[in-house]
Inverse folding.
């Protein structure tokens, strides 16, 4: 466990002075709570009952009138209590800041890790699981460091202060308090096992409900189109029934533990009161001492009552920490050891040498690709659906890494490029573009260097979308819904192309650039691509016919291999 927690400690130690101040405030709050009872003890014994004082606190009060001394002691007790409340509030505020900062560091690190990892590293993970790790698991780990651990420290300080006070007043009362704490701790720990089991079962069923809910919301169109509403409703109800059952069982176990704790606490209070009263009647304990011990007992019982909750919280956080720790180290890819490239290389020369890609134990999807894409050359890569065109694009963009062979850019092997520097050479328009919710301006500027409005308008005009945007009341500030749902398929494709054109990068990868477009839009996009010929390295990946004026040569992807199409066949290929 120490090694596991050490993995996350650097994310916690970002604000050392806040950590030190928070821990000091927690300890001070616990000590001040106990210290606030001492004036009350003196008030009862020295002022109300007139018992001779045997402590230094009473010395300056002997010359005071009783009512003045009582007010002074009550005021001192109030000040100590206020001090405890203020230090506790400051501790919670600091811990909240530390928790949010640690959560942010973990989330940013994890997202950076996800963004830099080859896509084939995610083959065993679902998107919902990744979301839970980035959002939920990080929060629980940060809470363990910044809330649970300080709480345990504060409770430990409370236990020591309370037991120390009881022993200071009377060794018999101190020993009684120690035995009570030990017995209650054993009882709660034994009962906690059943509660933790039921809590884990509840979390599993809740996770199942959450996963199913996500699937339902993502597939509403499919569910309605296939008439699956009743089936979906029945499945959802069944999962929720399981969650109801485990939730009731968890509550039942919690209530049982609470009942046992309440009975045990009542017996503890009876035992301390009876023992203290017997000592008072024998003159071995004052009434103020008994009040002090009963107050200390109350403070002793609080940590014990929270023991099960703390155990459950720690167990849950450690489970999530294990998942995160197991996930993060996998992020190291071939690119992680790359030497930095200090200057932008803009030739657009791209070479594949003996490149193959396939999943372990299966036939390669792509095999022994040997091809050179020359600078400022336009190449049409065609192939039937399922031929591996999307896999080839992923390889070129280093979304996945080849299982064999080498890809070189501007004469440098991929291992010599950081992934971000490699991808900065490519502008991409994918067949299924994703658009974040935002504005049209944001959509064109996404992933690009800062662009002024003039550059955005040029890109929109080149993609054949400028006139449409000008007719919108908000223009570039027109709001896009998630995934660009308020645009047509053709408009989304043009917007994706505009984003790629605005990038002004030496290589342009276009995945089915003419798909989902009407004839007029196809002509507009073809005009924009014709203007790029001879200016950038353009790779048109499409199974549809492409006008001959858009490319210099054709490569056919078939059987996992790339084949050149000879010049005399170009007219047939493009028709």
């Amino acid at each position: 466990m120490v090694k596991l927690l050490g993995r996350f400690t650097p994310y916690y130690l970002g604000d050392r002075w806040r950590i030190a101040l928070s821990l000091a405030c927690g300890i001070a709050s616990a000590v001040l709570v106990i210290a606030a009872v001492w004036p009350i003890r003196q008030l009862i014994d020295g002022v109300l009952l007139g018992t001779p004082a045997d402590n230094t606190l009473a010395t300056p009060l002997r010359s005071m009138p009783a009512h003045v001394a009582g007010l002074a002691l009550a005021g001192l007790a109030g000040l100590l209590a206020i001090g405890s409340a203020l230090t506790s509030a400051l501790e919670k505020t600091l811990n909240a800041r530390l928790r949010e900062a640690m959560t942010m560091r973990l989330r940013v690190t994890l997202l950076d890790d996800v963004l830099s990892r080859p896509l084939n590293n995610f083959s065993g993970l679902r998107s919902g699981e990744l979301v839970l790790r980035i959002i939920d698991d990080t929060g629980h780990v940060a809470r363990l460091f910044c809330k649970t651990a300080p709480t345990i420290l504060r409770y430990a300080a409370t236990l020591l202060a309370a037991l120390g006070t009881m022993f200071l007043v009377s060794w018999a009362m101190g020993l009684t308090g120690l035995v009570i704490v030990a017995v209650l701790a054993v009882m709660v720990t034994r009962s906690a096992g059943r509660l933790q089991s039921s809590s884990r079962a509840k979390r599993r069923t809740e996770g199942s409900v959450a996963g199913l809910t996500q699937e339902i919301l993502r597939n509403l169109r499919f569910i309605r189109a296939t008439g699956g509403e009743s089936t979906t409703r029945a499945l959802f109800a069944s999962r929720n029934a399981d969650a109801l059952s485990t939730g009731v069982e968890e509550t039942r176990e919690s209530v049982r533990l609470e009942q046992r704790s309440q009975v045990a606490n009542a017996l503890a209070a009876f035992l301390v009161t009876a023992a203290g009263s017997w000592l008072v009647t024998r003159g071995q304990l004052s009434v103020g001492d008994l009040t002090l011990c009963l107050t200390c007992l109350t403070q002793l019982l609080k940590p014990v009552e929270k023991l099960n909750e703390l155990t459950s919280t720690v167990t849950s956080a450690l489970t999530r920490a294990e998942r995160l720790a197991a996930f993060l180290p996998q992020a190291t890819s071939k690119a992680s050891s790359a030497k930095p490239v200090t200057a932008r290389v803009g030739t657009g020369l791209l070479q594949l040498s003996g490149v193959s890609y396939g999943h372990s134990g299966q036939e390669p999807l792509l095999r022994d690709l040997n091809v050179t894409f020359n600078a400022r050359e336009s190449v049409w890569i065609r192939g039937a659906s399922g031929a591996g065109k999307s896999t080839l694009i992923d390889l070129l963009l280093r979304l996945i890494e080849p299982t064999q062979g080498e890809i070189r850019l501007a004469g440098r092997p991929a291992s010599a490029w950081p992934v971000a520097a490699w991808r900065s050479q490519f502008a991409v328009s994918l067949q299924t573009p994703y658009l974040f919710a935002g504005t049209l301006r944001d959509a064109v500027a996404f992933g690009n260097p800062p662009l002024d409005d003039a550059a955005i308008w040029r890109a929109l005009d080149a993609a054949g979308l400028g006139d449409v945007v000008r007719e919108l009341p908000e223009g570039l500030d027109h709001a896009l819904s998630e995934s660009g749902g308020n645009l047509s398929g053709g408009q989304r494709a043009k917007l994706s192309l505009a984003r790629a054109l605005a990038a002004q990068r030496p290589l342009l990868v276009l995945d089915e650039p003419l798909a989902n477009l009407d004839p007029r839009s196809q002509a507009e996009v073809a005009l924009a691509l014709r203007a790029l010929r001879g200016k950038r390295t353009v790779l048109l990946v499409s199974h549809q016919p492409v006008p001959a004026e858009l490319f210099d040569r054709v490569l056919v992807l078939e059987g996992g291999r790339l084949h050149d199409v000879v010049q005399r066949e170009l007219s047939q290929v493009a028709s």
